[in-house]
Automatic annotation (TrEMBL):
InterPro entries: D-isomer_DH_NAD-bd (IPR006140), NAD(P)-bd_dom_sf (IPR036291). One of its GO terms (molecular function) is oxidoreductase activity, acting on the CH-OH group of donors, NAD or NADP as acceptor. Pfam families: 2-Hacid_dh_C. Residues 131-268 form the D-isomer specific 2-hydroxyacid dehydrogenase NAD-binding domain. SUPFAM superfamilies: Formate/glycerate dehydrogenase catalytic domain-like, NAD(P)-binding Rossmann-fold domains. PANTHER family: FORMATE DEHYDROGENASE 1, HYDROXYPYRUVATE REDUCTASE. This is D-3-phosphoglycerate dehydrogenase.
Length: 270
Protein backbone atom coordinates (compact mmCIF):
# COMPACT_ATOMS: atom_id res chain seq x y z
CA UNK A 1 0.00 0.00 0.00
CA UNK A 2 2.67 2.50 0.97
CA UNK A 3 4.53 3.88 -1.95
CA UNK A 4 1.51 3.57 -4.25
CA UNK A 5 1.71 6.96 -5.96
CA UNK A 6 3.11 8.26 -2.66
CA UNK A 7 -0.23 8.04 -0.93
CA UNK A 8 -0.39 8.05 2.86
CA UNK A 9 -1.83 4.92 4.43
CA UNK A 10 -3.34 4.25 7.85
CA UNK A 11 -3.19 0.88 9.57
CA UNK A 12 -5.61 0.24 12.42
CA UNK A 13 -4.47 -2.09 15.19
CA UNK A 14 -7.83 -3.10 16.69
CA UNK A 15 -7.47 -5.51 19.59
CA UNK A 16 -10.16 -6.00 22.22
CA UNK A 17 -7.47 -7.94 24.10
CA UNK A 18 -4.23 -6.02 23.50
CA UNK A 19 -1.01 -7.56 22.21
CA UNK A 20 2.03 -7.65 24.45
CA UNK A 21 3.84 -4.31 24.47
CA UNK A 22 6.88 -5.82 22.74
CA UNK A 23 4.71 -7.06 19.87
CA UNK A 24 3.12 -3.63 19.44
CA UNK A 25 6.57 -2.05 19.35
CA UNK A 26 7.60 -4.38 16.53
CA UNK A 27 4.46 -3.51 14.57
CA UNK A 28 5.16 0.19 15.11
CA UNK A 29 8.74 -0.19 13.85
CA UNK A 30 7.69 -2.03 10.69
CA UNK A 31 4.96 0.48 9.87
CA UNK A 32 7.23 3.43 10.55
CA UNK A 33 9.82 2.02 8.14
CA UNK A 34 7.10 1.70 5.50
CA UNK A 35 5.88 5.26 6.12
CA UNK A 36 2.49 4.03 7.32
CA UNK A 37 0.50 5.70 10.07
CA UNK A 38 -0.43 3.40 12.94
CA UNK A 39 -3.75 3.97 14.69
CA UNK A 40 -4.28 1.93 17.86
CA UNK A 41 -7.59 0.80 19.35
CA UNK A 42 -6.60 -1.43 22.25
CA UNK A 43 -8.78 -2.91 24.99
CA UNK A 44 -11.89 -1.33 23.51
CA UNK A 45 -15.20 -2.03 25.22
CA UNK A 46 -17.90 -1.72 22.58
CA UNK A 47 -18.64 -2.45 18.92
CA UNK A 48 -19.30 1.29 18.46
CA UNK A 49 -15.65 2.01 19.29
CA UNK A 50 -14.53 -0.29 16.50
CA UNK A 51 -17.06 1.10 14.03
CA UNK A 52 -15.78 4.61 14.66
CA UNK A 53 -12.13 3.63 14.38
CA UNK A 54 -12.30 1.88 10.99
CA UNK A 55 -13.66 4.83 9.02
CA UNK A 56 -10.26 6.15 7.90
CA UNK A 57 -8.24 2.90 7.91
CA UNK A 58 -6.69 1.39 4.79
CA UNK A 59 -5.71 -1.80 6.60
CA UNK A 60 -6.54 -3.50 9.88
CA UNK A 61 -4.70 -5.89 12.19
CA UNK A 62 -6.88 -7.85 14.62
CA UNK A 63 -6.81 -10.85 16.95
CA UNK A 64 -10.15 -12.57 17.57
CA UNK A 65 -12.04 -9.35 17.05
CA UNK A 66 -15.22 -9.62 14.98
CA UNK A 67 -15.00 -8.09 11.51
CA UNK A 68 -18.48 -8.42 10.04
CA UNK A 69 -20.58 -6.64 7.43
CA UNK A 70 -21.31 -3.74 9.79
CA UNK A 71 -17.60 -3.10 10.36
CA UNK A 72 -16.73 -3.35 6.68
CA UNK A 73 -19.57 -1.03 5.70
CA UNK A 74 -17.96 1.66 7.85
CA UNK A 75 -14.49 0.97 6.44
CA UNK A 76 -14.80 2.77 3.10
CA UNK A 77 -11.02 2.81 2.52
CA UNK A 78 -10.25 -0.72 3.76
CA UNK A 79 -8.10 -2.89 1.49
CA UNK A 80 -6.85 -5.68 3.76
CA UNK A 81 -7.69 -7.29 7.12
CA UNK A 82 -4.99 -9.39 8.79
CA UNK A 83 -5.75 -11.67 11.69
CA UNK A 84 -2.92 -12.47 14.10
CA UNK A 85 -3.84 -16.12 14.51
CA UNK A 86 -5.20 -19.11 12.66
CA UNK A 87 -8.64 -19.42 11.13
CA UNK A 88 -11.10 -16.90 9.72
CA UNK A 89 -14.21 -17.58 11.78
CA UNK A 90 -14.24 -14.03 13.19
CA UNK A 91 -13.99 -12.43 9.73
CA UNK A 92 -16.95 -12.29 7.33
CA UNK A 93 -15.17 -13.56 4.24
CA UNK A 94 -18.19 -13.10 1.97
CA UNK A 95 -18.48 -9.49 3.04
CA UNK A 96 -14.76 -9.00 2.38
CA UNK A 97 -15.12 -10.53 -1.07
CA UNK A 98 -18.11 -8.32 -1.83
CA UNK A 99 -16.11 -5.19 -1.05
CA UNK A 100 -12.87 -6.35 -2.67
CA UNK A 101 -11.04 -6.57 0.67
CA UNK A 102 -8.26 -9.11 1.13
CA UNK A 103 -8.38 -11.23 4.31
CA UNK A 104 -5.26 -12.92 5.63
CA UNK A 105 -4.23 -14.80 8.75
CA UNK A 106 -0.98 -15.96 10.35
CA UNK A 107 -1.24 -19.70 11.05
CA UNK A 108 1.53 -21.11 13.20
CA UNK A 109 2.97 -17.78 14.28
CA UNK A 110 1.66 -18.10 17.83
CA UNK A 111 2.07 -21.87 18.03
CA UNK A 112 4.75 -21.86 20.70
CA UNK A 113 2.89 -19.31 22.84
CA UNK A 114 -0.30 -21.39 22.76
CA UNK A 115 1.63 -24.59 23.43
CA UNK A 116 3.17 -23.05 26.55
CA UNK A 117 -0.29 -21.87 27.62
CA UNK A 118 -1.61 -25.44 27.27
CA UNK A 119 1.20 -26.82 29.40
CA UNK A 120 0.93 -24.06 31.94
CA UNK A 121 -2.73 -24.88 32.49
CA UNK A 122 -1.99 -28.61 32.63
CA UNK A 123 0.72 -28.20 35.26
CA UNK A 124 -1.38 -25.89 37.43
CA UNK A 125 -4.30 -28.34 37.21
CA UNK A 126 -2.17 -31.42 37.87
CA UNK A 127 -0.75 -29.71 40.96
CA UNK A 128 -4.23 -28.82 42.25
CA UNK A 129 -3.75 -25.10 41.62
CA UNK A 130 -0.77 -25.19 44.01
CA UNK A 131 -3.07 -25.51 47.02
CA UNK A 132 -0.47 -27.40 49.05
CA UNK A 133 -1.60 -30.92 48.13
CA UNK A 134 0.64 -33.17 46.07
CA UNK A 135 -1.37 -33.58 42.86
CA UNK A 136 0.27 -35.82 40.27
CA UNK A 137 3.05 -35.96 37.70
CA UNK A 138 2.49 -35.68 33.94
CA UNK A 139 5.12 -38.30 33.06
CA UNK A 140 3.56 -41.38 31.41
CA UNK A 141 0.19 -39.64 31.10
CA UNK A 142 -1.60 -39.71 27.75
CA UNK A 143 -2.60 -36.67 25.70
CA UNK A 144 -4.75 -36.87 22.57
CA UNK A 145 -4.95 -34.09 19.96
CA UNK A 146 -8.02 -33.26 17.90
CA UNK A 147 -6.25 -31.62 14.99
CA UNK A 148 -2.50 -31.95 14.55
CA UNK A 149 -1.45 -28.65 13.03
CA UNK A 150 1.34 -26.30 14.13
CA UNK A 151 -0.01 -25.62 17.62
CA UNK A 152 -0.81 -29.26 18.39
CA UNK A 153 2.63 -30.33 17.19
CA UNK A 154 4.24 -27.71 19.44
CA UNK A 155 2.27 -29.08 22.41
CA UNK A 156 3.27 -32.61 21.37
CA UNK A 157 6.94 -31.60 21.43
CA UNK A 158 6.57 -30.36 25.00
CA UNK A 159 4.65 -33.50 25.92
CA UNK A 160 7.54 -35.64 24.69
CA UNK A 161 9.88 -33.67 26.94
CA UNK A 162 7.59 -34.40 29.88
CA UNK A 163 7.58 -38.13 29.09
CA UNK A 164 3.94 -38.17 28.00
CA UNK A 165 2.42 -40.37 25.30
CA UNK A 166 0.75 -38.58 22.38
CA UNK A 167 -2.20 -39.61 20.22
CA UNK A 168 -3.75 -37.61 17.38
CA UNK A 169 -6.65 -37.44 14.96
CA UNK A 170 -6.61 -35.09 11.99
CA UNK A 171 -8.75 -35.81 8.91
CA UNK A 172 -6.32 -33.84 6.74
CA UNK A 173 -3.10 -35.59 7.79
CA UNK A 174 -2.50 -39.25 6.84
CA UNK A 175 -2.04 -41.64 9.73
CA UNK A 176 1.46 -42.55 8.62
CA UNK A 177 2.52 -38.90 8.70
CA UNK A 178 1.13 -38.52 12.23
CA UNK A 179 3.13 -41.55 13.25
CA UNK A 180 6.27 -40.12 11.62
CA UNK A 181 5.87 -37.04 13.81
CA UNK A 182 5.92 -39.21 16.93
CA UNK A 183 2.23 -39.48 17.81
CA UNK A 184 -0.01 -42.52 17.62
CA UNK A 185 -2.77 -41.99 15.03
CA UNK A 186 -6.38 -42.39 16.19
CA UNK A 187 -9.05 -43.47 13.70
CA UNK A 188 -11.99 -41.40 15.01
CA UNK A 189 -12.74 -38.33 17.09
CA UNK A 190 -14.46 -40.55 19.65
CA UNK A 191 -11.25 -42.56 20.01
CA UNK A 192 -9.45 -39.50 21.34
CA UNK A 193 -11.68 -39.38 24.39
CA UNK A 194 -10.37 -42.68 25.72
CA UNK A 195 -7.30 -40.78 26.98
CA UNK A 196 -6.87 -38.65 30.10
CA UNK A 197 -6.08 -35.40 28.27
CA UNK A 198 -7.78 -34.24 25.08
CA UNK A 199 -6.49 -31.03 23.54
CA UNK A 200 -8.59 -29.26 20.89
CA UNK A 201 -6.88 -27.70 17.87
CA UNK A 202 -9.63 -27.40 15.28
CA UNK A 203 -11.18 -24.41 13.49
CA UNK A 204 -14.78 -23.39 14.01
CA UNK A 205 -16.81 -24.85 11.14
CA UNK A 206 -20.33 -26.18 10.69
CA UNK A 207 -18.89 -29.63 11.42
CA UNK A 208 -16.99 -28.71 14.58
CA UNK A 209 -19.45 -26.24 16.15
CA UNK A 210 -20.78 -27.68 19.43
CA UNK A 211 -19.36 -31.06 18.39
CA UNK A 212 -17.65 -31.72 21.73
CA UNK A 213 -20.73 -32.90 23.55
CA UNK A 214 -21.84 -34.97 26.53
CA UNK A 215 -21.53 -38.22 24.60
CA UNK A 216 -17.85 -37.63 23.84
CA UNK A 217 -17.02 -36.21 27.26
CA UNK A 218 -18.69 -39.18 28.90
CA UNK A 219 -16.11 -41.48 27.30
CA UNK A 220 -13.22 -39.87 29.17
CA UNK A 221 -11.64 -41.91 31.97
CA UNK A 222 -11.66 -40.88 35.63
CA UNK A 223 -9.69 -37.67 36.00
CA UNK A 224 -10.25 -36.81 32.34
CA UNK A 225 -9.32 -33.30 31.26
CA UNK A 226 -10.44 -31.38 28.18
CA UNK A 227 -8.17 -28.53 27.05
CA UNK A 228 -9.64 -25.95 24.71
CA UNK A 229 -7.35 -23.28 23.25
CA UNK A 230 -9.13 -23.45 19.90
CA UNK A 231 -12.61 -21.89 19.80
CA UNK A 232 -15.19 -21.73 22.59
CA UNK A 233 -17.96 -22.63 20.19
CA UNK A 234 -16.60 -26.10 19.36
CA UNK A 235 -17.68 -27.20 22.85
CA UNK A 236 -21.39 -27.68 23.56
CA UNK A 237 -21.65 -25.35 26.55
CA UNK A 238 -24.78 -26.79 28.16
CA UNK A 239 -23.37 -30.31 27.93
CA UNK A 240 -20.09 -29.13 29.44
CA UNK A 241 -21.91 -27.59 32.41
CA UNK A 242 -23.85 -30.81 32.94
CA UNK A 243 -20.68 -32.91 32.89
CA UNK A 244 -18.95 -30.58 35.34
CA UNK A 245 -21.96 -30.84 37.67
CA UNK A 246 -22.17 -34.64 37.56
CA UNK A 247 -18.46 -35.54 37.42
CA UNK A 248 -16.34 -33.87 40.11
CA UNK A 249 -13.31 -35.71 38.74
CA UNK A 250 -13.62 -34.04 35.32
CA UNK A 251 -11.61 -30.92 34.47
CA UNK A 252 -12.10 -28.33 31.72
CA UNK A 253 -9.14 -26.07 30.92
CA UNK A 254 -9.82 -23.11 28.64
CA UNK A 255 -8.20 -19.71 28.20
CA UNK A 256 -11.57 -17.94 27.73
CA UNK A 257 -14.74 -18.57 29.74
CA UNK A 258 -18.09 -18.60 27.88
CA UNK A 259 -19.58 -15.16 28.60
CA UNK A 260 -23.14 -16.35 29.02
CA UNK A 261 -22.20 -19.11 31.45
CA UNK A 262 -19.56 -17.41 33.55
CA UNK A 263 -21.67 -17.45 36.76
CA UNK A 264 -22.36 -21.19 36.39
CA UNK A 265 -18.75 -22.00 35.60
CA UNK A 266 -17.45 -19.87 38.46
CA UNK A 267 -19.49 -21.83 40.94
CA UNK A 268 -18.23 -25.14 39.56
CA UNK A 269 -14.57 -24.24 39.17
CA UNK A 270 -13.99 -22.19 42.34
Amino acid sequence: MAGEAGKARTVLLATEKAFAAAAVTKIEDVLKAANYTLKKLENYKSKEDLLAAVTDADAMIIRSDIVDQAVLDKAAKMKIVVRAGAGYDNIDLKACEGKGITAMNTPGQNANAVAELVFGMMIVSARNNFDGTSGFELVNREIAFYGFGAVARAVHKLAQGFGMKSFAYDPYIPADKIKEMGAEPVATVAGLFEHQYVSLHVPLTDETKASINKELLGKMPKGGTLINTARLEVVHEADMIEVLKTRPDFCYLCDVAPKELVPSLHGLLS
